[in-house]
Design brief:
Elements: H1 2-12, H2 19-37, H3 42-55, H4 61-64, H5 71-88, H6 91-100, H7 109-124, H8 129-151, H9 160-175, H10 184-197, H11 203-229, H12 239-249, H13 255-281, H14 286-294, H15 297-307, E1 312-314, E2 319-320, H16 324-327, H17 332-351, H18 353-365, H19 370-387, H20 390-407, H21 413-422, H22 434-440, H23 447-471, H24 473-477
Antiparallel strand pairs: 1-2
Helix pairs in contact: 1-2, 2-3, 2-17, 3-17, 5-15, 6-7, 6-12, 7-8, 7-9, 7-11, 8-9, 8-22, 9-11, 9-22, 10-17, 10-20, 10-21, 11-23, 13-14, 13-15, 17-20, 18-20, 19-20, 19-21, 19-23, 20-21, 21-23
């Protein structure tokens, strides 16, 4: 009911913009309401928004729907298929138990906490945050259940179970910031930066910013959770034996696991290769231009996914690494939501709506320095991500930030980058991210504990993003 009211209110409001921009403002008002409330599936909201833009004469169909063929769409598809192969063959569990069984982990609760969170962080750099938490969650619950049955719940450090499960959710959300493919908001922000600002941010360049950010934010998160649930001197009897038995139950490496690892490794190598060439030979080197032109991330991910369909697991029975019935289980809604969000954002710039909104915000807020705009962009994206999905937050905030920066006569690249990273925060509430919702559903996490640790992590994340983007951003991007 609220979405049509928002549409009507903006339709009849005196906005002082062109007719096309005015119609688009009404459409986007309804879209934002539906994204925040999730009254209907978010991908369908994106489709309807673009369709209404065509029906109401904002833009021709060929123009409005063109972003659905953006090269980053195919980066999504290829990456999701690689992740599906890793899940299908259980390679993720093998990797998780290998890290948790390292000799240095032992039976110290602090070390177990660090290892568990680090696994979630490292895995989520490459595959869905939500899928990572869903995979690590039963491992954490099993670990806690085994410890409680062996020693009794009262013998565990107070708050250890809460800290362990929060470390899973928070670690996965943090890890998603580390690479462009770690979480959809990253690719959404990169898409706006490339399409509207003409700036390509290579895979390696993003990691040069994202990995230090992850390391600092993980360090703060582990300090905060460890102080609450992993006191010095406490021991967890039986952890080593439990993890060893779980790892042994996985058995020897299967052909599918080896194939999936090979395809994934080849993909990562070619994702990072152009950035390495630029680092050592410079961005003016012919080899760098050749690699970045012929092997963009979307093409590499499709080639890597293609390997999954030609590397056999049983050639006599014509079985390959990723069966098609498994491949089609990828998160298509994210692909559609990304296309619709980019389409509406692009129309906002084409019609002048984004520029009008940016000018209004400039006059209202009065922020005109690059540092101030970076801080404001990060905080705005973080606050919005607490109330709606990170993906929707990126779709809504990044185009506004770009227009705001242009109106304030500030280079929009760094503020847009900060807003993109800020959209991946939002640690305070169960509804902030599916990661939080999964671990909160265990019944082991009091809401007040999630809110207390989450708001502290949000504040630390805003400060770290502002510092990293402001200090390292000009060096990495050469701006």
């Amino acid at each position: 009911m609220l979405a049509p009211l928002a549409f009507a209110g903006l339709w009849f409001a005196p906005l002082g913009v062109t007719a096309e921009a005015h119609r688009l403002a009404a459409i986007m008002g309804a879209v934002v309401v539906l994204w925040i409330t999730e009254s209907i599936p978010m991908a369908m909201t994106a489709f309807l928004g673009v369709a209404c833009a065509v029906a109401l004469g904002v833009a021709p169909a060929a123009v409005a729907f063109a972003p659905f063929a953006d090269p980053l769409i195919f980066l999504f598809i290829g990456t999701f298929m690689l992740a599906q192969a890793i899940f299908f063959h259980g390679l993720d569990r093998r990797f998780a138990f290998a890290i948790l069984s390292l000799p240095g982990v032992g039976e110290r609760p602090g070390r177990v906490l660090v290892a568990y969170a680090s696994v979630a962080c490292l895995i989520s750099m490459w595959i869905s945050n939500t899928a990572t938490v869903a995979m690590m969650f039963p491992i954490g619950i099993s670990l806690l259940g085994a410890l409680e049955s062996r020693r009794g719940a009262a013998a565990l450090p107070a708050g250890f179970g809460t800290a362990l499960l929060l470390a899973n959710s928070f670690g996965a959300s943090i890890g998603g910031i580390g690479t462009p493919v770690g979480t959809p908001p990253n690719l959404i922000g990169l898409g706006f930066i490339r399409r509207e600002l003409g700036v390509d941010l290579p895979f390696f360049s993003w990691m040069a910013l994202g990995v230090p950010l992850c390391a600092l934010l993980m360090g703060w998160m582990l300090f905060d959770l460890g102080r609450a649930g992993a006191p010095e001197g406490a021991r967890l009897a039986g952890v080593t034996e439990l993890l060893r038995s779980e790892r042994e139950s996985l058995g020897p490496w299967s052909r599918g696991e080896k194939n999936a690892l090979f395809a994934f490794s080849v993909t990562i190598f070619f994702w990072v290769l152009p950035g390495l060439v630029a680092l050592f030979a410079g961005q003016d080197a012919p080899l760098y231009h050749s690699l970045s032109t012929r092997l963009p991330e979307g093409v590499v991910s499709l080639c890597g996914a293609g390997l999954l369909f030609v590397l056999p697991t049983n050639f006599r029975r014509y079985e390959f690494t990723l069966p098609w019935q498994e491949a089609v289980k990828i998160d298509w809604w994210i692909v559609f939501l990304y296309g619709g969000g980019i389409a509406l954002g692009t129309l906002a710039f084409k019609t002048g709506l984004a520029d009008a909104l940016g000018a209004a915000l400039t006059g209202l807020l009065g922020v005109r320095s690059e540092l101030g705009l970076v801080a404001l962009s990060t905080a705005l994206a973080t606050v919005l991500s607490e109330t709606t999905s990170n993906t929707a937050a990126a779709n809504m905030v990044v185009p506004v930030v770009i227009a705001f920066a242009r109106s304030a006569q500030v280079d929009p690249v760094l503020p847009a980058l900060a807003a993109t990273m800020g959209a991946s925060l939002g640690f305070m509430l169960p509804v902030s991210t599916p990661c939080n919702a999964i671990v909160y559903g265990s019944g082991r996490i009091p809401l007040t504990r999630m809110m207390r640790h989450g708001i502290v992590l949000d504040a630390a994340g805003i400060a770290i993003i502002v510092a990293i983007v402001s200090l390292l951003g000009p060096v990495v991007l050469g701006r």
